[in-house]
Amino acid sequence: MIRLLGDFDLAEEALQDAFAAAVERWPVEGVPANPRSWLISTGRFKAIDRLRKTRREVGDEADVPLELSDTEDYDVADDRLRLIFTCCHPALHPDAQVAMTLREVCGLTTEQVAAAFLTTAPTLAQRIVRAKSKIRDARIPYEVPSLPDLPERLASVLHVVYLVFNQGYFTRADLATEAIRVGRLLVDLLPEPEAIGLLALMLLHDARRVTRTTAAGVLIPLEEQDRAQWNQEQIKEGVALVRRAFETRRAGPFALQAAIAAVHAEAPSSAATDWSEIVGLYDVLLRMEPSPVVALNRAAAVAMRDGPEHGLALIDAILARGELEAYHLVHAARADLFRRLGRKAEATTAYKRALELAVEEPERRLLERRLQEL
Question: What is the mean pLDDT of the chain?
Answer without folding.
Answer: 87
